[in-house]
Amino acid sequence: MKHTYKLLTIFLTTMCFGQSNLSLIPMPQNISYRSGSFMLHSKTVIQTNDVTSFEAEFLQESIKNQTGLDLKIVKVVPNSVASINLVFDVEGPEAGNFKEDYKVEVAAKSITIKAVYNQGIFYGIQTLLQLIPHEHKSDIKIPCLQLVDHPKFKWRGMHLDVGRHFFPTSFIKKYIDYMAKYKMNTFHWHLTEDQGWRIEIKKYPKLTQVGAWREGSMVGHYNEQKFDTIRYGGFYNQNEIKEIVAYATARHITVVPEIEMPGHSLAALAAYPELSCTGGPFEVGKKWGVFDDVYCPKEETFTFLENVLTEVLDLFPSEYIHIGGDECPKTRWKNCAHCQKLIQEKGLKDEHELQSYFIQRIEKFVNSKGRKIIGWDEILEGGLAPNAAVMSWRGTEGGIAAAKQKHFVVMTPGSHCYFDHYQGKPENEPIAIGGFTTLEKVYQFNPIPEELNSEEQKYILGAQANVWTEYMLSPEQVEYMIMPRMFALAEVLWGTANPNNFFDFKTRIQAHENWLKNNNIKYRKTSFTE
What we know:
Strand content: 15-25%
Number of strands: 21
Strand order of the largest sheet: 8-9-16-17-18-19-20-21
Structural class: alpha/beta
């Protein structure tokens, strides 16, 4: 009876208000519905002062894909013609002059999307597209309304590990499209790992000739310790990297590359073993997990990394460069004469401070190029580099500590933001690394810890989901693991999630699942009985 009541509620709510009114994700900050509707049809035009702008052409193409209607883009609207107007507002939206703020007004004769910057126009377009049904009809009704919208958090991210399993550029673009549709703005691209180096570095060709390929992979769960002998790998050349960055930039998504150091570097050491403490030889990692062999903090290593980062910086214009810093065993350093001598020469207490010295050397170089570093919360150990931002993954403690030290933080705790975790009962789900992170748990996430005062809270940039791919062998499996949990995180980071009204959120998801299904995107169906 309880489940019947819930389904009846969905039906009645949809009948009363219209499905499109209910289905916006993320829900806007302020929305008011008006009587009447706008009629979208083949003679409707898109009006903008810049008829070649990406936003106008994106809107045109998206409406054609959704409805079959091929609208013209014009500078001046003919008399009595219905129009969708893209307007740059020099005074700014009511919510404030921020790059991502926007307004949408749907009236009987026109739709107006207004913003100060292109980003706001783009987000207004994404909201409008969610109001337009996915159906091929000659006349399509859009309910009259007015909304004023802006995000709460600056960093609204999705991460993707391409080291454990490699994904083609076609899927990376799809991933970016998914993010853009839900107003996510930061793509954290995890490009180097023990199990594969995925970015072309022209000065060091063996990184991709050797480091991009492993002679086998784990099969089944880690606990089974089974392997195949199939050569596996791949990498992105620099032209492909540029193409992806340009594709993301057009959609107002920043691509933050991650080049792991000092740990998770076995693929690089397989190519250049002289950068290790022992001299090797090494092979690219076949199993998942953590390896003892890491970069040795000697001058030739720093020269190598600075040369690598020089090419990375040329490819990625992002403010932040992710340098990893996590899960770096100190086993080799403890038994390395050079490392122990360096600890003494620099007056360091231990190997943890040696890692801090390593990270600070890299930060100084990155800062000299006008950029900043961000790293996993282990970079706090031994002392935080002066200008570093922290990505807090081992709970929220690292983020709290960093914010109290006045360092910027991206929250990504395993408890709520690891989308490689099971999202349902393991016996009913594809194999995963472990954990249990449901849709509701993601929706309940608050990136700002209670332990921070109002001043310290300002250092929380936002949050992101991490997608580690040990058990994701295909794009379809990645899609299944992020959908619909990405919807929940998008609303959390936009600032309109209401954990007390999770049922309403699940109701809104239904229309989005129809979109996923119609576009052959894999997803986990939302259940009203779990």
